[in-house]
Amino acid sequence: MFKKILIANRGEIALRIIRACRELGISSVAIYSEADKDSLHVKLADEAICVGPPSPKESYLNIPQVISAAEVTGAQAIHPGYGFLAENANFSEICQANNIVFIGASPENIRLMGNKSQAKKTMQQFDVPTIPGSEGLVHSEEELESIAKKTGYPLMIKASAGGGGKGMRIVESHRQLVDAYRIAVNEAQTAFGNGDVYIEKFIENPRHVEIQILSDADGHAIHLGERDCSIQRRHQKLIEESPSPVVSEALRQKMGETAVRVASSLRYQGAGTVEFLVDKHHNFYFMEMNTRIQVEHPVTEMVTTIDLLKHQIMIAATGKLSLQQSDVVFSGHAIEFRINAEDYTRQFAPSPGRVHLYLPPGGPGVRMDSHIYPGYVVPPYYDSLLGKLIVWGHDRDEAIKRGARALNEFIIDGVTTTIPFHQLVISHPDFISGNFDTSFVDKKLLAKQNG
Fold first, then answer.
1. Does residue 162 carry a pLDDT above 80?
2. 106-138, pLDDT tens digit by residue?
3. Residues of the chain with CATH 3.30.470.20
């Protein structure tokens, strides 16, 4: 086992990794920017080292500084969390070159899954259902028109290196095709430095359902059930739950076996997520694979009681996954609410500032993962996530009622948060009945407000 791990991240995920390290008897090193010098992860880690100014590019994304921090403190491994360098294949290689273990996927798997069109080709080789569309990248407007004619409308133009909804356009008719293609290419080039795009059939009324996996490089893999992430805005998740209201036991088994086949075939190492779209006929299609721990991992931990972070670290240290599929037992229902410093009435505009009062909820079945405290200043330089409220119930009805109770007693004063938004969602009849898809927030919840 490692003696010391450097955490190349900030916020609640840095705290989550510190806690896993402490329970495993591992010392932790926090890195921080000048803007984060008073952050809780800096206070709770065994050691802390500043890696630069507030700008992520000059601090958390500054690979030479991060590697230097690991070397100076004697860390044997680096945990990247999610975001920042978590899916950076070059960083993974640089860690290896400096005899530092990267707690995550191999550079080869990060590169393969990071290229959406190549990932799709690979899934087809593994006999995994994929969304109809282009065989690979679209290189010209002539090729675009030919593929669109074959695929039919509506369709989606998607950035190959994309994420977070950038470089993505829904095209309803041939009239919109060329303009949407040019906009998507330009947006992808600006956001990712890579203007490559591909085409997929647009699945109407889809659910976003993902399967959590743990796997080792010997091909031993297990799945830990699904998370339904359909409550999202601009393709960014806001609420996640497990199990999904629309996934039957038979479908869960089929999707789980598919995800395990993917992990085993890739000789994938660590924690990962295979993401699918599920249509109204309960057909599922591969969308992408995230080669890191997910923001929403606590949902799975609550229904399985398996600590994903500890197992991720143990796999990196030993090269072996100690769990069998039979060790995974599901119990009850969990829902996670992402508490962001955002104003949903102003199109989720960020709301940085000082937290004057912070009173998180408690009681049975309530978990709060957060790095904030009274007096904490929410900086404007990073993601607006303040924390995650996770509730557990014996069934979905109890989980929803517990979520409503927890949100009602939750107080954060000084910055605007998404707590009122979550209260709107879980009181909506369609959410309560499980009758929603990825367009729910825009079309049903906020349509009147925006109109």
1. no
2. 999 999 999 888 998 999 999 999 988 988 899
3. 207-450
Domain at 4-103, CATH from 3.40.50.20, 3.20.20.380, 3.40.50.1220, 3.90.180.10 = 3.40.50.20
The residue to which tokens 């840095």 are assigned: 14
Q: How confident is the model at residue 449 (pLDDT cuts 50, 70, 90)?
A: low
Query: pLDDT tens for residues 285-340?
Result: 999 999 999 999 999 999 999 999 999 999 999 999 999 999 999 999 999 999 99
Joined tokens for residue 328: 């995974």
CB 102 within 8 A of CB 66: no
Among the residues of 305-387, which ranges form H helices?
Answer: 308-318
Domain 207-450 has CATH 3.30.470.20: yes
Q: Which residues pair with 232 in a beta bridge?
A: 237
Contact call for residues 42 and 17 (beta carbons, < 8 A): no
- Stated length of the chain: 451
DSSP 15: H
Residues with catalytic roles: 292
Residue among 40, 101, 39, 42 nearest 70 (CA):
101
Euclidean distance between the first and the last CA atom of the chain, given in angstroms as a whole number? 56
pLDDT for 108 equals 97
The ranges of the chain annotated as CATH 3.30.1490.20 are 132-201
Of the candidates 57, 219, 192, the one whose C-alpha atom is nearest the C-alpha of residue 116 is: 192
Helices (H), 32-88: 40-44, 63-73
Collapsing DSSP to helix, strand or coil, 328 comes out as coil
> Which CATH number applies to 132-201?
3.30.1490.20
Distance separating alpha carbons of residues 297 and 304, to the nearest angstrom: 11
